[in-house]
Amino acid sequence: MAQQDLKIAILGAGMGGLTSALALANKGFKNIDVYETASDLGFVGAGIQLAPNMARVLDHLGVWKGIEAEAVNIEETSVRVGASDTELAHVDLHYIESTYGYKHMVGHRYSLANGLYQGCLKHSDKITFHFATSVSEIQSFGPKPTFTVTPRDTSKQPYTSTADVLLGADGIKSLVRVAMISDLNITSDVKDTQQAAYRIMINKDQIREDPELLALINSTKVTRWIGEKRHIIAYPVSNNTIYNLSTTQPDSNFAAATNATYTTKGSKSAMLGVFADFCPLVQRMLNYVPEGEVCEWKLRTHEPLPTWVHQSTALVGDACHPTLPHLAQGAAQAIEDGAVLAVVLSKLPATDPESIHKALKAYEKVRKDRAYALVELAAASGRALHLGDGAAKEQRDKQFAALKAGKGPVPDKWADADVQKEIYGFDCVKEADERFAEYFGLA
Questions:
Q1: Name one Pfam family in it (predicted).
Q2: Which residue of 37, 189, 222, 418 is most buried, as measured by CB atoms within 10 A?
Q3: How many angstroms separate the CA atoms of 243 and 149, rounded?
């Protein structure tokens, strides 16, 4: 059997699942099934940063141009004191495109997900989507992964399905991950970060009479307002028609919630209270959120896993490396996963279960250390941004002052040139392509 005849099952149609499907189809794989619990993709969500390492993969897959056309090119970032709106640091980002080959864009999650989905639909002869369909049990991880499929339509009976390769791209609450660590006797707990987030989108029509906010939505700038244990990051998306705000603050609404609870309806007054000591500009932005449309997310991560692979099954994206948003790399890393999986599976020297396992371990060697390094870097950046009064904050603010004078690192790691080099300068497809034989031999 040729590699492209392998039957591949992908659980989850998020960024990692969609990218895996599209990348595999581009490599000629013919039998790709994507199982998604939702009845359709819905394309809800807020803004998302489209960093050069993500753009490079999307361009390689042939979908970047359409996504880029709806995005905004970010040319500068400003880090400011939340309470006073005083600028702590300003970083010019014009060098990004000439250095990494792609601009640093920001867009709407709808545009990114839809771009990937439309790319998949062009391969409808190779990719079959099963919406309103969940996988309720993993029966085996190999040699041929076997699982129970349960349609949401109760008039349809659950059934058993098999594949040659199973990819668990089913998110932070991954069924595949839970089953895998149980089968391997691994302990990997959910880490409660004690942080939560609001996602807010302000339409340009709402602020036409507010010249200060209108200037922000018309800009090519990311702005971050920081305070003790809290910050807000904001930027325009959708061709400068929407201003996207993402906050991080102490978790007070989920303290007694179970691990399965990740979102809750919030009150506008509670949200305003969290940022009550921030500047009037921030207060005005938050006040544009309609009453009843405040939603809060709990931010959780996992303890790192010793492996992402079990027999002919591999984990993808948030199922194995959920990341705090402080580096804006969560979706980008899931997209890198999908691209690398397609490379290693296309290079299989044989299609027996042992070779499939070794190829999946090659994927893990390309991706695991990098992904976990960025998970930790995102957490460290969040800690630096959220310092209260004390020596550590004084040291951080000295770094910001040095940056304004043109020297030193950026405490906000997202904007630090050395960190950007580590993240944006890495070509995951090239790494997988050039080092496959080495990694395959080590598995």
A1: FAD_binding_3
A2: 222
A3: 40
